[in-house]
Design brief:
With 379 residues, the chain is mostly helical. The chain contains 17 helices and no strands. The protein has helices at 4-32, 38-60, 65-85, 89-98, 110-122, 126-153, 156-176, 189-194, 200-216, 219-230, 234-262, 264-281, 288-299, 305-316, 322-337, 340-350, 354-374.
């Protein structure tokens, strides 16, 4: 049975994913309204990713967990307040950087590493741990679905104020539960890397490969591709990604059941390879309907590896090292995504199908490499 505190942390995660999904969908249309070139939008996405990396490193050295979570929540609240009050592209960019908000549409905050550690602390039985991580990730994608729907049916100004309210909900969630502090010695980041547990460096390299591919197709880049190729509207984008998030949320729930039957490693690799084949097929037939169909098919398995990966990491890594290691993994993934948005935007302008073909090849290479290294792990 999953601990109630794991459910509360899932609520916290879902508030952030609602916020990040809404901003990721809105931003390309907002910036294109100012005639911003595609490559500059790619640069901004990369810069926000870099900012999230800086946040991860800075927050790692804040020892008190509650202070860390309160500070991150407060900065997010202040940033969203600026965005809502001032409809200005310069202030918009400043607010994104101040809040450490990545435009990838994913949760790249320091909160996530702490929450993942806390869940592994609450859940001591492997089956419960698998289920807790599935719920944690499912709630996030369910929130992303609601964010996409809100952009279709709700006034934009009202959506922005909803984001402010949700950031306040996250703050209150942290106030209601006890998140364990992590006892560790003070150490510089280089020493922290040097003292990483066995397998952590190898896993960082593998996750970096996957994230480089992921950086090429962040949510804003996929929206830019459909806007550039098919000239879709914000409403159409909202509808497309509502379906995408519904499919993803359902698949996340199924991930734990598949992992319990097939094993965590097989679940990570097989589901991810299937999604990469669908990814490569998105641009093959030059029709919006076919592009949407293969995007939806891709989403049926593309995120099934996420709860399995979380469970894998938080099982093979020693308990006392999990927050440090999760922070290093997040930093590695974020750093690897940095060049992706710029390269992706350039690929769109050069030859649009290359965006999905190159990404599918890179991410499939990660899957094969991961399997060759960890196929003997029976978790």
């Amino acid at each position: 049975m999953v601990n109630v505190r794991s459910y509360l942390l899932a609520i916290s995660s879902s508030t952030r994913l609602f916020i990040f999904t809404a901003l990721a969908i809105l931003t390309p249309f907002y910036l294109l309204s100012f005639k911003m070139p595609l490559y500059l939008i790619g640069v901004l996405i990369s810069v926000t990713t870099l900012t999230s990396i800086v946040f991860l490193y800075v927050f790692y050295f804040i020892k008190k967990t509650r202070i860390k979570l309160y500070l991150a929540s407060s900065l997010l609240f202040a940033s969203l307040l600026l965005i809502a009050l001032f409809k200005n592209p310069v202030i918009f960019v400043i607010a994104l950087l101040m809040g450490g908000i990545s435009l990838s549409g994913k949760d790249m905050t320091p909160n996530k590493a702490v929450e993942q550690y806390a869940i592994s602390h609450y859940e001591v039985i492997q089956k419960s741990k698998n289920e807790a991580y599935s719920i944690y990730n499912f709630s996030a994608y369910a929130a992303g679905t609601l964010a996409s729907i809100s952009l279709v049916f709700i006034n934009l100004n009202l959506v922005l104020y909803m984001l402010i309210l949700l950031s306040a909900v996250q703050f209150f969630t942290y106030w209601t539960i006890h998140v364990p502090d992590i006892e560790r010695k003070s150490e510089g980041i280089l020493k922290a890397i040097k003292n990483l547990p066995k397998d952590a460096i190898k896993l960082s390299a593998l996750f970096a490969m996957d994230s480089f591919g992921g950086g090429l197709i962040t949510l804003p880049l996929i929206i830019l591709w459909f806007k550039y190729v098919y000239n879709i509207s914000l409403t159409t984008a909202g509808i497309i990604f509502t379906v995408v998030n519904i499919i993803t949320a359902i698949s996340i729930l199924l991930s734990a059941k598949i992992a319990n039957r097939m094993g965590v490693v097989n679940t990570m690799v097989i589901t991810h390879l299937i999604s990469n084949v669908m990814l490569i097929l998105i641009p093959v037939y030059h029709l919006l309907l076919w592009g949407e169909l293969f995007l939806f098919l891709r989403q049926t398995t593309s995120q099934m590896d996420v709860p399995a990966r979380d469970s894998f990491i938080n099982t093979i890594i020693p308990k006392e090292e999990r927050v440090k290691t999760n922070t290093i993994f997040l930093s590695s993934r974020n750093m690897s995504q940095l060049p992706g948005p710029l390269i992706g935007a350039m690929l769109i302008e050069l030859f649009p199908p290359l965006l999905f073909i190159v990404t599918g090849i890179v991410k499939s290479s990660y899957d094969i490499s991961f399997y060759l290294n960890y196929k003997n792990y029976k978790i």
